[in-house]
Amino acid sequence: MSKIHVTTTVNGDTVEFLADPRETLLDCLRDKLGLTGSKEGCGTGDCGACSVTVDGVLVSSCLVLGVEAQGKSVTTIEGMDKDGELHPLQRHFVEKAALQCGFCTPGFLVAAKALLDKNPDPTETEVRYWLAGNLCRCTGYDKIVRAVMDAAAEMRG
């Protein structure tokens, strides 16, 4: 099968790659662009480890084809920091020990940022609901929710 030329924006930069029409966006990000922060946990869209945003919409990149990124804007965990400065969510995850093995952390951070972009003042219930598609085997979720709530408060000023 012939490859398709894809031009897209990833983390604010225009990028190009050749993709097999059957390749997932996750595989293209990792294998073609070297952006390995997003992880494949399940390959079925159930764990959230591969979460990215496409045109501002939270998606499981294991369920999106790489060719579907054509002309769109993709944001990954690698796009969260600004000029080497951690995003408040990243900082609060570290400060609140909201991570252990770290495998799921990029997906949680991308999902939490997508929530706060839509709703800068979520309730704890809204945070838990929004992050329900992200699975963690280590933390028990409470520290993650607290980190998101505290980052949201900081970001609101």
Write structural notes for this entry.
The protein has 157 residues and is α+β, with helices and mostly antiparallel strands. The protein folds into 2 domains: 4-79, Ubiquitin-like (UB roll) (Roll); 88-156, DNA polymerase, domain 1. The chain is built from 5 helices and 5 strands; from the N terminus they run ββαβββαααα. The chain has helices at 25-32, 88-95, 105-118, 124-130, 142-156; strands at 4-10, 13-19, 51-54, 57-60, 73-75. A hairpin with a 2-residue loop joins β3 and β4 (57-60). The longest helix has 15 residues, at 142-156. The model has no long low-confidence stretch (mean pLDDT 97).
Summary, kept brief:
It contains 5 helices and 5 strands, in the order ββαβββαααα. The protein is α+β, with helices and mostly antiparallel strands.
Key terms for this structure?
alpha+beta; Ubiquitin-like (UB roll); 5 helices; 5 strands; 33% helix
Layout of secondary structure:
Elements: E1 4-10, E2 13-19, H1 25-32, E3 51-54, E4 57-60, E5 73-75, H2 88-95, H3 105-118, H4 124-130, H5 142-156
Parallel strand pairs: 1-5
Antiparallel strand pairs: 1-2, 3-4, 3-5
Give the quaternary arrangement of the chains. Answer: single chain
**Backbone CA Rg:** 15 Å
State the CATH architecture of the largest domain: Roll
User: Any idea what the CATH superfamily of the largest domain is called?
Assistant: Beta-grasp domain
Main sheet: which strands, in order across?
2-1-5-3-4
Beta-strand fraction estimate: 15-25%
Mean pLDDT: 97
